[in-house]
Amino acid sequence: MINKFILISAILLLGIASVAGALYIRENVVKAYKIPAASMEPTLLVGDHILVDRSKAARPPRRGDLIVFKYPEDPSKDFVKRVVAVAGDTVEIKDKILLINGKAVNEPYVVHKEKEIFPATENPRDNLPLLKIAAASFFVMGDNRDRSYDSRFWGTVSKDKIKGTVKSIYWSWALLSHSLIE
Predict the structure, then answer these.
(1) Each residue of 33-66: pLDDT tens digit?
(2) What is the mean pLDDT of residues 14-30?
(3) Please, where are the H alpha helices in the chain?
(4) Residues 152, 140: Cα–Cα separation, whole Å
(5) Which of 128, 110, 108 is nearest to 120 (CA)?
(6) Helix (H, G, I), strand (E, B) or coil at 2
(7) Which candidate, 124, 67, 72, places its Cα nearest to that of 98?
(8) Beta partners for 141?
């Protein structure tokens, strides 16, 4: 009878430890997210599932990294965008061309689906005046530039709002269906 009690207790403790460990890993090490919108196309497609490194030991985001962060206008929502500038950089956009520290950036992953160019007085999408990025802040943009609501509209993302760096796409319906068609 005592052996059964010890065995059942050990199984329960192992189960509790497993659940606690899984929850700790999910909240502090790696977390899965599903992409709900097209602002990061063609890099991340609607419905893609990504893994995000949330560990404290992860390196700070660098230019070009995809990050998940608390949306500045509604912190209950998470957004994913590309870091285009870091603390100390200057950012400027002239007729849809991104300039970092005065130099045009080669961005092969970016798409512009609309030919119209808005003047800065109407909309910051295509023309943004020179802006210096403050300490512990990041300027982020979607790869689908004409359809992304990002730092051009609501400003930088502070380091404390970043949840993690995208490490990989682990499931993509669009890529799967594309390969099935061919």
Answers:
(1) 888 899 999 999 999 999 998 886 667 899 999 9
(2) 52
(3) 2-28, 151-154, 173-181
(4) 8
(5) 128
(6) helix
(7) 124
(8) 82
Cα-Cα-Cα-Cα torsion 42, 47, 50, 52, nearest 10 degrees, comes to 100
Smallest CA-to-CA distance from 156 within 139, 134, 131 is with 139
173 half-sphere exposure, CB direction, 13 A CA radius = 6
Amino acid at 182: E
CA distances in angstroms from 68 to 74, 90, 92, 147, listed in the order given: 14, 22, 23, 18
Give the residue numbers annotated as catalytic, written as ranges.
39, 81
Nearest to 69 by CA among 143, 168, 161, 156: 161
Q: What is the pLDDT of residues 23-40, one digit of tens each?
A: 444 454 578 888 889 999
